[in-house]
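JOB MANIFEST
job_type = single_chain_structure
chain_count = 1
residues = 163
[input]
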Amino acid sequence: MSESPPAIREVLVPDLAATERLAAALAASARRGDIVALSGGLGLGKTTFARAFIRARPGGAGFAEVPSPTFTLVQVYDLPDCAVWHFDLYRLAGAADAWELGIEESFAEGISLIEWPERLGNLLPADHLGVAFRCGAAPTARQIYLTMHGDWPHRLAGLSAHV
């Protein structure tokens, strides 16, 4: 039996606030074991999205600081329902180095937000939500493509009402 192809949805966001609303909507649908792969060039909003996602989770609003893990490579946020692991793999030397960051534990026990997921190669599980950022028509606008594998299409069926 072959795996069904992923569903893809384009979401146009006019500004930072809309990006944050999208992140909050996705955070509300996320659960333990989920992987959210954030791709796109530098400065397109991946870290802003991750910050809003973390703060939208139960208990996440209490984190005044949600720094980019550019130099630490991973930040873990212990929240009441499960931990959210925020990875920035831009500086990762090779995919195998992700094991040293605890990525296997994050896949099994938490929610994983992964910036630069292409650095994982084949280590990125097939069942994940891809969130790809592209420049939009205006300087603050973004085209965001959601590539939904597994049960993500069902979970995000009503997403447009949230953005």
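[summary]
The radius of gyration is 15 Å.
The mean pLDDT is 89.
exit_status = 0
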